């Protein structure tokens, strides 16, 4: 049984806490890890699915590959980690969440300040004219048998997920950097810190004199600089929900 007392003490004394979440948080809700044994990147077309040039060439590759994983997200619910973070926000400790996930579960759990550093499918935009379409609209079209949802102008709707070949969403990443710098404690949850530039956010906290606490099933590049390192996300959530009831 892991001892979370050091982490809980740090949370109680912190003026501002930030969070960086990754795929490990999503998998607790049953969502496959893209890089896991059953993940999307095992698909032979994986490199093409999230490639913006391929999307412009043939958007059906993306929509075929993500029909279940992205557009079936309504069947997934927030788990105890999402609820624990909402609790920390409710008691005034947590000031924001930077997430690498695109499943929108932090918002579904009620968290207010969520910065999606790899983009989000909440909105889609036409690649030709820029017209917006909501996630719900795209889901409805796919359920009605549409292979590629298209704008009235004929252009394909692309989700605001950051594809290979695109820049990260500027506002979300800037807000995440500000969060990391201003937080005297940052929680790194469910990410092995291998995908940059998001993986560099906790280093900003360290450089500003803050503490990093890591909860992840596998080792990370910052384990030796963390104030404490844990492996069990569910146990972390239980500890937070118990102490901050």
Fourth-level CATH superfamily of the largest domain: TPP-binding domain
The arrangement of helices and strands along the chain is: HEHHHHHEHEEEHEHEHEEH
Across the major sheet, the strand order is 3-2-1-7-8-9
CATH architecture of the largest domain: 3-Layer(aba) Sandwich
Q: Specify the CATH class of the largest domain.
A: Alpha Beta
CATH topology description of the largest domain: Rossmann fold
Q: In terms of structural class, how would the helical and strand content be classed?
A: alpha/beta
Binned, the helix content reads 25-40%
Kindly state the mean pLDDT as a whole number? 93
The proportion of residues in beta strands is 15-25%
The tally of strands reads 9
Straight-line distance between termini = 21 Å
Which value, in Å, is the CA radius of gyration? Answer: 19 Å
List low-confidence stretches: none
How many domains is the backbone divided into? 2
Please give the count of helices.
11
Principal-axis shape equals elongated
Describe the fold and architecture:
There is one protein chain. α10 links the parallel β7 and β8. The model has no long low-confidence stretch (mean pLDDT 93). The protein is built from 11 helices and 9 strands. Helices cover 35% and strands 18% of the residues. The chain has 2 domains: 1-31 and 77-118 and 168-245, TPP-binding domain (Rossmann fold), CATH 3.40.50.1220; 33-75 and 120-161, SIR2/SIRT2 'Small Domain', CATH 3.30.1600.
Write the layout of secondary structure elements.
Elements: H1 5-13, E1 17-21, H2 23-27, H3 46-49, H4 52-57, H5 60-66, H6 80-90, E2 94-99, H7 105-108, E3 114-116, E4 119-126, E5 132-134, H8 135-143, E6 157-161, H9 170-182, E7 185-189, H10 201-207, E8 211-215, E9 228-230, H11 233-243
Parallel strand pairs: 1-2, 1-7, 2-3, 7-8, 8-9
Antiparallel strand pairs: 4-5, 4-6
């Amino acid at each position: 049984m892991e001892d979370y007392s050091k982490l809980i003490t740090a949370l109680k004394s912190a003026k501002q806490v930030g969070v960086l979440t990754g795929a490990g948080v999503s998998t607790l809700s049953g969502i496959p890890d893209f890089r896991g044994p059953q993940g999307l990147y095992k698909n032979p077309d994986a490199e093409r699915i999230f490639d913006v040039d391929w999307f412009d060439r043939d958007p059906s590759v993306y929509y075929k590959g993500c029909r279940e994983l992205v557009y079936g997200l309504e069947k997934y619910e927030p788990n105890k980690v999402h609820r624990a973070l909402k609790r920390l926000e409710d008691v005034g400790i947590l000031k924001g969440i930077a997430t690498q996930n695109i499943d929108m579960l932090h918002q579904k759990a009620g968290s207010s300040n969520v910065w999606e550093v790899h983009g989000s499918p909440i909105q889609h935009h036409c690649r030709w004219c820029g017209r917006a379409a909501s996630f719900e609209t795209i889901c409805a079209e796919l359920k009605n048998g549409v292979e590629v949802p298209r704008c009235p102008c004929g252009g394909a709707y692309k989700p605001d997920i950051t594809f290979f070949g695109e820049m990260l969403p500027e506002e979300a990443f800037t807000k995440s950097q500000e969060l990391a710098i201003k937080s005297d404690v940052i929680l790194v949850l469910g990410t092995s810190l291998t995908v940059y530039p998001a993986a560099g956010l906790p280093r900003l906290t360290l450089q500003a004199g803050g503490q990093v606490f890591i909860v992840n099933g596998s080792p990370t590049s910052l384990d030796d600089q963390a104030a404490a390192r844990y492996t069990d996300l569910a146990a972390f959530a239980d500890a937070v929900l118990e102490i901050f009831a």
